[in-house]
Amino acid sequence: MKKIEAIIRKSKYREVKEALHTVGVNFFSYWDVTGLGNEKEGHVYRGVSYSTSDIQRRYLSIVVNDDFEEVTIQAIINSAGTGEVGDGKIFVSDIQECYRIRTGEKGGKTLK
User: Fold this and answer.
1) Residue range 58-87, pLDDT digits in tens
2) How far is Cα 62 from Cα 76, in angstroms, rounded to an integer?
3) Is residue 7 within 8 Å of residue 30, measured between CB atoms?
4) CATH number of this structure's domain 2-39+49-111
5) Degrees, nearest 5: CA angle 5-7-10
6) Residue ranges per domain, the chain?
7) Looking at residue 108, what is its pLDDT?
8) Average pLDDT over residues 38-57
9) CA-CA distance, 62 to 75, in Å (whole number)?
10) Residue 70 to residue 62: CA distance in whole angstroms
11) pLDDT tier for residue 44 given thresholds of 50, 70 and 90
12) What percentage of the chain's residues is helix, strand, coil (to nearest 5)?
């Protein structure tokens, strides 16, 4: 099993969610987060300077069986990308075990 963590633009969340559902990923958790990016300049809007160092993003946490890893990553990349700085990051790590609390089952079948 793999844990896929993605930090994406909040404006792309709906597209990413639909892309994940399309490839069969129907359960994941998400949070609204704020982070610091590489952009150090501020932006000016109507004569007022705004700091862009604090960036609003959405953090997704997805656990999938090994055979869903690549399709999940591609769904995120294809739906979240704009080609601009700040599209986000994806992190993948191994999950040793998973348990379904209700039944006590363990293993990859708990993700279905």
Assistant:
1) 999 999 999 999 999 999 999 999 998 888
2) 11
3) no
4) 3.30.70.120
5) 135
6) 2-39+49-111
7) 87
8) 65
9) 12
10) 13
11) low
12) 30, 40, 35
Other C-beta atoms lying within 10 Å of the C-beta of residue 20: 23
- Hunting for tokens 């990051």 — which residue is that? 89
Using alpha carbons, select from 21, 35, 52 the residue that is nearest to residue 89. Answer: 35
Q: Residue 43 and residue 64: Cα distance in Å, rounded?
A: 39
- Residues across the chain: 112
Backbone angles phi, psi at 78, to 5 degrees: -70, -30
Contact 30, 6 (CB under 8 A): no
Say what angle helices 69-80 and 13-22 make with each other, to 10 degrees. 150
Residues 9, 64: Cα–Cα separation, whole Å:
22
Residue whose C-alpha is closest to residue 33's, from 6, 58, 54 = 58
